[in-house]
Amino acid sequence: MEKILVSACLLDQPVRYDGTGAGCHALLQRWWAEGRIVMVCPEVSGGLPTPRPPAEIPGGQGAAVLEGRVPVRDIQGTDVTAAFIAGAETALALVREHGIRFAVLKARSPSCGNHETYDGSFSGTRVPGEGVAAAALRRQGVQVFNETELAQLEQLLQQQVQSCDEPSGTKR
């Protein structure tokens, strides 16, 4: 059975910066019941407390953080880059341990966003980019989805099951 790395907040764990969860979707609940999910909060596993001040990446690019070109700073100006990188490394360790190829991470998060994040000004301005953990996972070949893309991942998983169920030598 294909394991999926999932942001803990998407399973309604109170790990977000404001001490809340982000709800729990029916498909995630089903995958949890099936034993597919490996849960992680990169920010908490990187050593940050809950609750914590919100953090953003100037320019919104997690890859630039991994390359040491920009920091992650919280709203008070504190550099929290080391915690974000440590959390990304924890996520990568889980991927290796469980042979994970897919992740569902929280949209727009400075750790987990897979298409956009915030620009670092704490003004609510979104920019194209990805969070630190999402960038690290993508670099390792993990396909990263967010909570609005669950149906896409479900379809991909179903296609894999169907292709494995076909007898060898059968043409499509």
Automatic annotation (TrEMBL):
Pfam family, one: 2-thiour_desulf
InterPro entries named among the record's database cross-references: 2-thiour_desulf
PANTHER family: HYPOTHETICAL CYTOSOLIC PROTEIN (PTHR30087:SF1), INNER MEMBRANE PROTEIN (PTHR30087)
Protein name, entry field: Uncharacterized conserved protein YbbK, DUF523 family
Organism per entry: Halopseudomonas formosensis
